Amino acid sequence: MRALFATPFLALLAFPSLADPLPSWNAGDSKVAIISFVEAVTDPASEDFVPVHDRIAVFDNDGNLWAEQPAYFQLLYAIDVLKQKAADDPSILGSDVLKAAAEGDMEGMMAGGVEGLVEVINVSHGGITPEDFKASAYDWLTTTPHPTTGMVFSDMTYQPMVELLRYLRDEDFTTYIVSGGGIDFIRAISEEAYGIPPWQVVGTEGNTSYSADSGTPTVMKDGGVSFVDDKEGKPVGIMRHIGQRPIFASGNSDGDFAMLEWTTAGDGPRFGLIVHHTDGEREFAYDREGHIGVLNRGLDEAGERGWTLVDMAQDWSRIWMGNQ
Fold first, then answer.
1. What letter does residue 153 receive in the DSSP assignment?
2. Do residues 65 and 59 touch, judged by C-beta distance below 8 A?
3. Pick from 136, 181, 233, 306: most CB atoms within 10 A?
4. Which residues of the chain are under the pLDDT cut of 70?
5. pLDDT at position 91
6. Is the Cα torsion angle 232, 236, 238, 239 positive or negative in sign?
């Protein structure tokens, strides 16, 4: 376990609540919109009052709660695990995709498409219990340096978003992660990083199986993918795991569009938030082009849909929970 103040969410808990619920958010339209919405839905005298049991807020993870460049953290983890396994048993590299991944050749690996990524997942995520997998993922996230920032991966959560999660929970919202990332990978650190327990994580799911043949009842991760919690899959994942439409949704890419669209189409007060990566100095600047976190439709339609578009460079006084 890392020192208390090295963990994002616990670091916030170490200090008393501030009069400003979002101290890392600069004064401006985004901050006003968030606070105004929260005050309206939590005031019993307001016509927009929402009962506690309906105060559901959902957040994408990659690029919304922590960074996602130059590649998804889970993909970098999978490659590291694959390299370790190949060092012990080179015979596992039975395809060009696996060989490329083990060599760190991202272009060669991505050339295999979805099927190639599943190959990498099968080798790196299969044949292990969920408990052992989460322990491995936690150790990697809390000790491995990011390839461009040099920061430990778990320190690359966004302090303004961690503050937002805490603010919502202080106002009796229930906060969920709804991510295209693997559900067990996020569960490995969600409570420590964000104050979100593992049962409030919705994500892409792999194949699992149960056996008691050895005399010890065991659940195993078998590799492969059984449900993709991305794009149109996000509203489906929400209903599978949460069972009701949220009133607050936050994402950063067009992969989150359906989640925001469905959330804000419900009756009563609704809030849609898009984190726009505009800060190439403190973080990474990207939107319409690229292989990760592409944001086109969200940029084009946020205004007409009444969604709040957060400009990271302008709206956030601080980016990382870790040292910066």
1. G
2. yes
3. 181
4. 1-18, 323-324
5. 92
6. positive
Centre a 10 Å sphere on the Cβ of residue 269 and count the other Cβ atoms it contains: 16
d(CA 298, CA 301): 5
Distance CA 282, CA 318 (A): 9
Burial of 191 (0-12, 13-18, 19+ CB in 10 A): middle
pTM for the whole structure: 0.92
> For residue 213, which amino acid is it?
D
Helices marked H in the chain: 8-13, 29-42, 73-88, 96-102, 106-110, 113-125, 130-143, 159-170, 183-187, 190-194, 233-241, 257-264, 297-305, 312-315
In the three-class reduction of DSSP (H, G, I as helix; E, B as strand; rest coil), residue 249 is classed as strand
Whose tokens are 């015979």? That residue is: 91
Q: Report all structural domains of the chain as residue ranges with CATH numbers, in order of start.
A: 4-70+148-315 (3.40.50.1000), 73-128 (no CATH)
Query: How many residues are present in the chain?
Result: 324
Full DSSP string of 84-137: HHHHH-GGG--SHHHHHHHTT-HHHHHTTHHHHHHHHHHHHHSSB-HHHHHHHH
Measure the CA–CA gap between 114 and 21, rounded to whole angstroms: 42
Cα 86-92-96 angle, rounded to 5 deg = 95
- Asked whether the bond before 51 is cis by omega within 30 degrees of 0, the reply is no
97-134 pLDDT per residue, tens: 999 999 988 888 888 887 888 888 888 999 999 999 99
